[in-house]
Write a structure and sequence with these properties.
- There is one protein chain.
- The protein has 1 helix and 19 strands.
- By secondary structure, the chain is an alpha+beta fold.
- It folds into 2 domains: 128 residues, Immunoglobulin-like (Sandwich), CATH 2.60.40.1240; 129 residues, ApaG domain (Immunoglobulin-like, Sandwich).
- It has a 5-stranded antiparallel beta sheet, with no helix packed on it. A 5-stranded antiparallel beta sheet has the order 10-11-12-17-16, with no helix packed on it. Strands 1-9-8-5 form a 4-stranded mixed beta sheet, with no helix packed on it.
- 26% of the residues are buried.
Length: 349
């Protein structure tokens, strides 16, 4: 009997031990697949990351040398004509680069229309890298040709002063958004030792719809009326003007205040109504499609601020590099905050 009990005890112990071992084994085996799944998921994520790395290709930015043109179809074209070292410095600037170059460049509006800027504007105040890779700077120097807002069909000849720490070829990294908000990039390798390139003005069809001529009034209801009344060439020059246009014209015009009143504050904080003041030099495009400019010439009558109901007769001196017919575009906001814009085709002779 004792023998039977002992045998039963042994059997029971073996059974319990087997059950415990089985539970332990099962527990380990249950965790193994879970660990394996996690490992597979990690490997899968790693594989995806590697795949993404392989797919992402670094954007290749086109590079241009002096005389080569960066063109964005239907938007703009730009060319660096050359660069010249200068010893001049701006005494009012805190910048003190070792070397300064005056860069000549042109840009043409091939179809870029921006209602805020009245056209295309391309300055060179972007990323500048010198011959050793050091960062350069845009320097505030006196330039002959200012970058301007260029309407469709026109070309601007411009300049910029660029400061670097090390002489030699430097890089201008340009980045601009087109009218569809697509970012466009280009790099210009500017070589000061290379010969300057002659400026070329690409032929672009200018918009003529809605253009007015001499004697045709531009009327904005309840605001103003503006009329170009005449034009004549002049040989007079201002000895203190730093620009030397090929042709200089005196434009006669008149404007009438039909209801324009703008509230303004004086230094004491008091507000008062300000009348109408108009000029005709917002944008000037000469016979070849190159931007002209307002010239500090001698005129018999200057524009004045006039009250409602009054008319002002005024003159403006216009300088151009290509004689002949030219276009004037006048752009200003009315009292409702709406931008008004009108182009006049001025026939010369």
């Amino acid at each position: 009997m004792k023998r039977g009990i002992a045998a039963f005890a042994v059997f029971l112990s073996v059974s319990l031990l087997s059950a415990c071992n089985s539970a332990g084994i099962l527990g380990i085996e249950e965790k193994k697949p879970e660990t394996a799944v996690e490992s597979t998921a990690d490997q899968s994520e790693a594989s995806k990351a590697e795949s993404v790395k392989e797919v992402v290709v670094e954007e290749k930015v086109p590079e241009f040398k002096n005389g080569e043109t960066w063109t964005v179809d239907g938007q703009w074209s730009m060319t660096i004509l050359g660069a010249t070292m200068t010893e001049e410095r701006n005494e009012f600037s805190d910048l003190n680069p070792a070397v300064i170059y005056v860069v000549d460049y042109t840009y043409t509006n091939l179809g870029y229309e921006d209602t805020i800027l009245d056209g295309l504007y391309i300055p060179l105040d972007q990323e500048i890298v010198d011959s050793t890779g050091a960062e350069g700077c845009f320097y505030p120097g006196l330039i002959t040709y200012l970058p301007e807002n260029v309407p469709v069909g026109a070309t601007c000849r411009a300049q910029a002063w660029i400061g670097v720490e090390n002489p030699g070829a430097f890089k201008l990294n340009m980045s601009m958004y087109d009218v569809k908000m697509k970012q466009n990039k280009a790099s210009f390798i500017v070589d000061p030792d290379a010969e300057h390139v002659e400026m070329a003005i690409p032929p672009v069809e200018a918009e003529t719809a809605g253009t007015l001529g001499i004697g045709e009034p531009w009327t904005v209801d309840g605001q103003w009326s503006l009329t170009i009344t005449g034009v004549r060439p002049t040989d007079e020059r201002n000895e203190f003007e730093y620009r030397n246009p090929a042709a200089l014209y005196v434009v006669d015009y008149e404007y009438t205040n039909l209801g324009y009143q703008e509230e303004a504050s004086d230094v004491s904080g008091d507000s008062e109504d300000v009348g109408l003041f108009m000029t005709v030099d917002s944008q000037i495009v000469d016979s070849a499609g190159l931007m002209g400019y307002s010239y500090a010439g001698s005129v018999e009558s200057s524009p004045e601020t006039i009250p409602v109901g009054a008319t002002c007769h005024a003159q403006e001196c216009i300088g151009v590099d290509n004689p002949g017919d030219f276009r004037l575009t006048v752009s200003m906001y009315d009292t409702t905050g709406t931008k008004q814009r009108q182009t006049f085709l001025i026939k010369v002779g």
